[in-house]
């Protein structure tokens, strides 16, 4: 699956930045998004804790992966914020979210039932998943 050109360009741009530059860019975006509101304060606090948590990582490959994750997270947040202002996109996002929650709940219920069967000593059955193509 090909990335949209703007998204690919963003990720390419992130790859050349130092972690400090990326951290400062993230804080600037957080300030732009929510300034001094509670949302902005929480976003900056989350950014600070994530960067501190990973400050000791010295593997270059892992650092690049973390930088890409930060860029994707901000891009997803910006997409979510812009989409929430457009009624058609907001409706689609809400439907997707509720479908995903339902699917997770169904999977958790199946897993609980499987564990309960195993605890009762009933024969383990393989579950077959049917995928529509």
Q: What's the short version?
A:
By secondary structure, the protein is mainly alpha-helical. Helix content is 76%, strand content 0%. It has 2 domains: 16-83, no CATH class; 86-117.
Architecture blueprint of SSEs:
Blueprint: H1 5-15, H2 19-34, H3 38-53, H4 60-83, H5 87-120
InterPro entries: Complex1_LYR_dom
Domain Complex 1 LYR protein: 20-70
Organism: Nannochloropsis salina CCMP1776
Can you walk through the features of this model?
The longest helix has 34 residues, at 87-120. Helix 2 packs antiparallel against helix 3 (38-53) and helix 2 runs parallel beside helix 4 (60-83). The chain has 2 domains: 16-83, no CATH class; 86-117. Helices cover 76% and strands 0% of the residues. The mean pLDDT is 78. The chain has 133 residues and is an all-alpha fold.
Considering the chains and any ligands shown, give keywords for the structure:
mainly alpha, 0% strand
Let me know the average pLDDT: 78
Structural class: mainly alpha
| Unreliable residue runs | none
Order of helices and strands: HHHHH
What percent of residues adopt helix (DSSP H or I)? over 70%
**Strand tally:** 0
Domain count: the total is 2
């Amino acid at each position: 699956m090909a990335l949209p050109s703007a998204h690919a360009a963003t990720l390419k741009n992130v790859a050349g930045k130092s972690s400090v530059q990326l951290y400062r860019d993230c804080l600037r975006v957080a300030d732009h998004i929510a300034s001094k509101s509670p949302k902005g304060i929480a976003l900056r606090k989350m950014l600070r804790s994530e960067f501190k948590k990973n400050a000791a990582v010295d593997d270059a490959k892992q650092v690049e992966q973390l930088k890409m994750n930060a860029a994707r997270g901000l891009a997803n947040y910006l997409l979510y914020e812009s989409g929430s202002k457009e009624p058609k996109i907001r409706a689609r996002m809400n439907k997707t979210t509720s479908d995903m929650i339902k699917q997770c709940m169904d999977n958790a219920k199946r897993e609980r039932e499987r564990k309960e069967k195993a605890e009762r000593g009933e024969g383990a059955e393989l579950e077959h998943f049917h995928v529509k193509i």
